[in-house]
Amino acid sequence: MKFYKLLAALILSFSLYSCSCDDVNLGKLEHNGELMSFLPAKGKRYFVKYEEVKLPLAYQAADGVYPIVVPVEKTGKKQTTGKGGTSDCIEYFTTEGKEYPGYIDGQCPFSINQMYTKDVNQYGFNSISDKNQVADVIEYIVGFNNKFPTIITRGMSNYENYMPYRVFTLAKDREKLRHKKNDITQEFLATVTLNGVQYQNVYHLYLNSPQFTEDEKFFNQHYPLDYPQGVFVKEGVGIIQAYTASGKQIDITVE
């Protein structure tokens, strides 16, 4: 009797694991470097001006990369994971993200970060017929800290402040952009004056709507949240100004 139980267990085990398949790596989406000049330049001293206060700003050069899996489609097969649970095998590319965080030396409610990567969605399937046509993009991730006038309680947690983030994606050809983390408009300005300084050849990236997350909707019911609404970006410098929906702004200069 024990023999038949063992045989049944072996048959069940075989049925769970015999229908396996492998994910298919389609290769790497290499960076072409076409937007590198829109990142902060090396060897320059940056300063942030916010509400008449001038603070040093340091950008940390990317000393490493973040590996990114870019799903393309399912293979049409299933991969058994055991105990009857299955997952689809996928075809995918790989790429990487290079992060350039900014550090402000002093009290400033803004947070600035940059990610140089490819125009892909790492959390969903991507329609890619020619990997050489997938463009480089820069994601400017900007946050603005809201300090609440009174403590907001949510469940077991108390909040004195909250920082909404928005992602402003710069692309050479905005119309061909595949994936948008935030819905924005990108416009090119031949000349623009910001905080009394005239600049040439600047990109203006701004939100088309608030695009509140579920968490932000909750806090916004208690206190009107201010959030990053737009940035101005210049080649050779990076962000030269960021501003919020209420009009608060920081200006970034190079000396």
What can you see in these coordinates?
- With 255 residues, this protein is mainly beta.
- The chain has one domain.
- Helix content is 10%, strand content 53%.
- The protein is built from two helices and 15 strands.
- It has helices at residues 2-17, 214-222; strands at 24-28, 46-50, 53-59, 66-82, 85-104, 110-118, 136-144, 146-154, 157-162, 165-170, 184-194, 197-207, 228-234, 238-244, 249-254.
- The strands form two sheets. Strands 1, 2, 3, 4, 5, 6, 7, 10, 11, 12, 13, 14 and 15 form a 13-stranded mixed sheet that branches. It has a two-stranded antiparallel ribbon with strand order 8-9.
- β14 and β15 (249-254) form a beta hairpin.
- The longest helix has 16 residues, at 2-17.
- The relative contact order is 0.16.
